[in-house]
Amino acid sequence: MAPRILIAAGGTAGHVVPALCVADALRERGAEVVWIGGSRAEASLVPGAGYEFHQIDVRGLDRKSVRRALAAAVVAANAVGRSRALLRELGPDAVLGGGGYVAGPVGLAAALRRVPLVLTEADSHLGLTNRLLAPRARRVCLAFPLDGRSGKRYRVTGRPVPAPFTDRDAARTRFGIGATEHVVLVFGGSLGARTINVAAVEGLADAPFRVLHVAGARDFAELRARFLGPGYDLRDYLPIDEFRMALAASDVVVARAGGSIFEIAAHGRPAILVPYPHAAADHQNTNARWMADAGAAIVIADDVLDGPRLAREVGALLGDDQRLAAMAKASASLARPDAAAEVADEVLAAAG
């Protein structure tokens, strides 16, 4: 009988996409996968990928407002009860917690029902949910080695990401890019990154190279109203498969330094990283330094980034083929192509 695995992950695509990669690896190994999530990215991405989806009402903990934090705690308590009922109904052999607030109630319900629990952590520190659940987990799969997180409970697997798109010519054809043109890919996550968005349109709008800018929904309308040269391709969003093609088509990537750095590395791309300054435990700066120390990235602080600075840094990279090639090689060396398979193996081992 095929093992049944329940995945709990949601919120941003940064939590959902890695968990989907593990789900695919589990399905390839013959497991049956069901999913519990909230109402955000997972509500469309998970059913769209062909997985059975069950929704619970859960929200993030607001640390700036006591009133909203208490309201979230009440919702979370109710979500634990709903999760216990779903676990009783679905009967999973193991639960995978993909991080984020969705995984909290489900992971606690799994522990209370003595269902084996495996966790994944995509960042360079343990998030609140994973810190609370780690003592109850069979295994915690880490994207990075973390101080104080060693021993048999912890395993460094890397962050699961979709397989890289390897046909560069096809990718360039998809975006109408010539074989010899330089291309800069700019993105800032599903919502976008305001600092990067503004610096890109101010510094690269009429650049002598191609720019593919995935701005996110929040700033798209405003950016579209600005002057953009004929080589500037502004998009609000790219589906996962097209985003992989954009990475394959690019020569340099300008981005935040969240979990997407593993997608950049999977495609072997040099990067200019602008860490989000308010990330929990400053983990984006740690992520960025990890790439920079390997020679794969340049790091620019958010508060000093502007159009002229970005134009100078991009121009210097594109004008130095030897440096660009060395950074690309360093980036590829950081990739963990087997991350999803390794996490899937841990989940199946926990399921017995």
Task: Give your account of this protein's structure.
With 352 residues, this protein is α/β, with parallel strands linked by helices. The protein folds into 2 domains: 4-162 and 337-351, 3-Layer(aba) Sandwich (Rossmann fold); 168-333, Glycogen Phosphorylase B (Rossmann fold). Helix content is 44%, strand content 16%. The strands form 2 sheets. Strands 3-2-1-4-5-6-7 form a 7-stranded parallel sheet, with helices on both faces. Strands 10-9-8-11-12-13 form a 6-stranded parallel sheet, with helices on both faces. It is elongated.
Low-confidence stretches: none
Major sheet characteristics: 7 strands, parallel
CATH superfamily of the largest domain: Glycogen Phosphorylase B
CATH class of the largest domain: Alpha Beta
- Average pLDDT score: 91
Number of domains: 2
Q: CA-to-CA gap between the ends?
A: 12 Å
Approximate strand percentage: 15-25%
Using the alpha-carbon principal axes, give the shape: elongated
CATH topology of the largest domain: Rossmann fold
Number of strands: 13
